[in-house]
Amino acid sequence: VQLQASGGGLVQPGGSLSLSCAASGSIPIINYMAWYRQPPGKQRELVAIIRSSGTATYVDSVKGRFTISRDNANNAIYLQMSSLKPEDTAVYYCNLVSDGGVPFWGQGTLVTVSS
């Protein structure tokens, strides 16, 4: 399974940015897909999960600002980010977990929130 994330870049505080992630290759039955992020010098953390049912869960720090969505037909997920803060600066990673619990990771895309 290959996961290709895109959409990162530099944005000013208060701005918006959208990330995309498409899965390709031998895609297993998907349990859920998610976005993680790793701020500079910190550990990777979960940002949002979207299950095959469409149910989404967010970390408290992004609730009301980020929206995760999913295109099941194209095995893709998206992360719409708004009201961005400097503390949202991180490398954002796409994650897919199979029905059997096997995780797959994308290469990451850098989001920098700075004036």
Structure description:
- This protein has 115 residues and is mostly beta strands.
- The chain is built from no helices and eleven strands.
- Strand 9 and strand 10 (103-105) form a beta hairpin.
- The chain starts with a strand and ends with a strand.
SSE arrangement:
Blueprint: E1 2-6, E2 9-11, E3 17-24, E4 30-38, E5 45-51, E6 56-58, E7 66-71, E8 76-81, E9 90-98, E10 103-105, E11 109-113
Parallel strand pairs: 2-11
Antiparallel strand pairs: 1-3, 3-8, 4-5, 4-9, 5-6, 7-8, 9-10, 9-11
- Strand residue percentage: over 45%
| Element pattern in H and E | EEEEEEEEEEE
| Mass-distribution shape | globular
Q: Determine the N-to-C terminus distance.
A: 37 Å
- The total strand number stands at 11
Assembly type: single chain
* Biggest pleated-sheet summary: 7 strands, mixed
Which structural class do you get from the secondary structure elements?
mainly beta
Low-pLDDT runs of 5+ residues are: none
Radius of gyration in whole Å, from Cα? 13 Å
Mean pLDDT: 94
What level of helicity do the residues show? under 10%
Number of helices: 0
